[in-house]
C-alpha cells in the first residue's frame, strides 16, 4: 500500500552523521512508485548510506524519511522492502536452492507454508535465471551468479520496493543487460519500485528517473531526457559534469 500522495519514498531534510562526518546533508527527494530510480554519483558520495537509511539499517538519521507510507525501518515494512547489499550475502556451503529455502523458512516459517515456500523459491530462481544452477554450491558460483542469488533472496517476499546497492558492479555486459531487463520486467509487470545505485553513468540511461548525488547532496532529481535537455548535453554523464561545475561556481560566488 502506497501513501496517500502516491509516493514510494519521501525524504525531507534527511541528514546522516557517520562518525564525526555529516555524510548526507538535508536531502529532499521523492521516489515514484512502480518506476526505476537510479541513484548515481561518484564513490563515497553517500549512495549506500542513503539506501541504508531507506531500508532502516542506518544509525544517526534525522529529518523525515517515509517509505511506502510508514517511517523508514518500521517493522511492518520488512516483507515489503527487499534490500541487496554490495557484498552478496549467501552461504557458500549451501546450494543455491538451500540458500533460498533457508531464507524462505525465515519469512514463512512452519509446515503449513511448505508448498508456498517451495513455489516462492522456484519463482525467484526462475526470475534470476538460476534454475539450472539450483543444486550448485553457492561457493562455486561466479560473482555475478552470487549477486543473482542475493537478488533471488530479496525477491522471495515479492517486495513492493527493491533497494539494490550497485547490483551490476563487476558483471560482464551480457549479465548487466539481462539484469536490467529483469528490473524493467519487475517494474512493468509487478509494479515494483526499484531504487538502484551505480557509479557507472551509462546505467543512468536505463532508469526512468535519476537522483544525481555528490558529496552528500542531491544535484538533480529528474528524468535522463530532462537532465540532458536542461544541461544541453548528449549524455547524462556530461549533464552530471555540467551540474558539478555549476554547483562549484554557485559556491564560489556565494563566498
Ligand atoms: N563507518 C563509517 N564511519 C565514518 N564514515 C563512514 C563510514 N562508512 C562510510 N563513511 C563515509 O561516508 C561517506 C559515504 O559513504 P557511502 O558508502 O555511503 O558512499 P557510496 O557513494 O555508497 O560509495 P561507493 O560507491 O564507493 O560504495 C564516505 O565518505 C565514507 O568515507
Automatic annotation (TrEMBL):
<dbReference type="InterPro" id="IPR003593">
    <property type="entry name" value="AAA+_ATPase"/>
</dbReference>
<dbReference type="InterPro" id="IPR017871">
    <property type="entry name" value="ABC_transporter-like_CS"/>
</dbReference>
<protein>
    <submittedName>
        <fullName>ABC transporter ATP-binding protein</fullName>
    </submittedName>
</protein>
<keyword id="KW-0067">ATP-binding</keyword>
<dbReference type="Pfam" id="PF00005">
    <property type="entry name" value="ABC_tran"/>
</dbReference>
<keyword id="KW-0547">Nucleotide-binding</keyword>
<dbReference type="InterPro" id="IPR003439">
    <property type="entry name" value="ABC_transporter-like_ATP-bd"/>
</dbReference>
<feature type="domain" description="ABC transporter">
    <location>
        <begin position="9"/>
        <end position="240"/>
    </location>
</feature>
<dbReference type="InterPro" id="IPR027417">
    <property type="entry name" value="P-loop_NTPase"/>
</dbReference>
<dbReference type="GO" id="GO:0005524">
    <property type="term" value="F:ATP binding"/>
</dbReference>
Amino acid at each position: 500500500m502506497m501513501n496517500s500522495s502516491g509516493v514510494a519514498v519521501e525524504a525531507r531534510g534527511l541528514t546522516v552523521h557517520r562518525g564525526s562526518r555529516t555524510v548526507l546533508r538535508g536531502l529532499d527527494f521523492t521516489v515514484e512508485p512502480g518506476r526505476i530510480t537510479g541513484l548515481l554519483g561518484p564513490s563515497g558520495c553517500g549512495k549506500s548510506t542513503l539506501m541504508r537509511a531507506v531500508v532502516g539499517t542506518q544509525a544517526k538519521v534525522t529529518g523525515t524519511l517515509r517509505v511506502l507510507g510508514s517511517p523508514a525501518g518500521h517493522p511492518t515494512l520488512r516483507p515489503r522492502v527487499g534490500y541487496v547489499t554490495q557484498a552478496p550475502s549467501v552461504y557458500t556451503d549451501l546450494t543455491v536452492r538451500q540458500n533460498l529455502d533457508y531464507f524462505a523458512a525465515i519469512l514463512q516459517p512452519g509446515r503449513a507454508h511448505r508448498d508456498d515456500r517451495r513455489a516462492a523459491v522456484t519463482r525467484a530462481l526462475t526470475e534470476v535465471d538460476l534454475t539450472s544452477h539450483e543444486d550448485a554450491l553457492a561457493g562455486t558460483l561466479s560473482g555475478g551468479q552470487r549477486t543473482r542469488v542475493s537478488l533471488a533472496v530479496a525477491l522471495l517476499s515479492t517486495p513492493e520496493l527493491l533497494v539494490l546497492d550497485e547490483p551490476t558492479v563487476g558483471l560482464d555486459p551480457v549479465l548487466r543487460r539481462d539484469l536490467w531487463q529483469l528490473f524493467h520486467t519487475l517494474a512493468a509487470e509487478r509494479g515494483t519500485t526499484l531504487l538502484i545505485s551505480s557509479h557507472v553513468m551509462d546505467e543512468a540511461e536505463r532508469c526512468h528517473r535519476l537522483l544525481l548525488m555528490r558529496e552528500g547532496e542531491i544535484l538533480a532529481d529528474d528524468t535522463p531526457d530532462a537532465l540532458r535537455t536542461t544541461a544541453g548535453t548528449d549524455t547524462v554523464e556530461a549533464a552530471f559534469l555540467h551540474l558539478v561545475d555549476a554547483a562549484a561556481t554557485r559556491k564560489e560566488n556565494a563566498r
